Amino acid sequence: MSRVVYALTWSQFADKAEVPARIVFLLILGVLIRLIVNRLIDRLVSKTAGLAPPKHFFGSERAAKILSTNATLYHERRAQRAQALGSLFKSVTTVVTASVIVLMILEILGYPLGPVLASAGVVGVALGFGAQNLVKDVISGVFMLLEDQYGVGDIIDMGEAVGTVEGVGLRVTRLRGFDGVLWHVRNGEVIRIGNRSQGWSSLLLDVEVAPDEDIPQVEELINGVAQAIAEDDAFRDNILEVPKVVGIEAVTGNSITLRVIGRCAANQHFGVLRELRLRLKAIFDAEDIRVPAPIWPDHQTGTTGTAAP
Questions:
Q1: What is the pTM for the complete model shown?
Q2: Do 225 and 184 belong together in one domain?
Q3: 195 touches 150 (CB < 8 A)
């Protein structure tokens, strides 16, 4: 008789201990799954951040030769994007794993999952209608990071706002305008983006001279100045393609416009342009190259601006 009572007691104990044991097992399993997936994500992020830039990223052989020796910016951008996406995937993994474990624990405890799932579906639909702009912003932010449309430090044009990117989030991008205004732009509202800092920057300069000047001589002077700047130690690493005159852009009654085109490292064309203008002014003065005189409004018809009595 004692053996039967003992057997029943042990059976009841085993039945009561099974539920906590299964719950503990599920919790441990969820933690292990999260750790394994996070470790895989970390390895993927580390591998992605260390990839070399693609060949088409540089744009030319000279650009590849210069930028391949200083690809720190490219690797930093890739690392930032990879880390941001890795953090997002870790959060998604945590939410999904936790939700599945909670539902399985509720099932073990005997709660009916039908009403719970139905309620969750209703709440999800309500949140979908109420937070559709938020979802749109987040999805747009993910694709912006995946496609590397811009990064921190880039000068971009978003239509209404133009400036330097100070922060890239999944929902909002912070943009500092040239006038100091900090713009907060929702990613879902961005229709087009013009990135002036990605890969390289184009150098474009129009030089006007008097119509009776010797154009071949002027072209030779401009190309010589551009070549001297490209060989200068202060600008050598910033110039990817030496600027040169590509031809006559416009001819008017009082001027001839020569167009100069080159290629510089990202955001470095401003300094090269200033130095090019400065040296052109000096050599034009030395070689007596005349430029068109300014036409003031009162002198457009040759008048002096003095009213007739």
A1: 0.55
A2: no
A3: yes
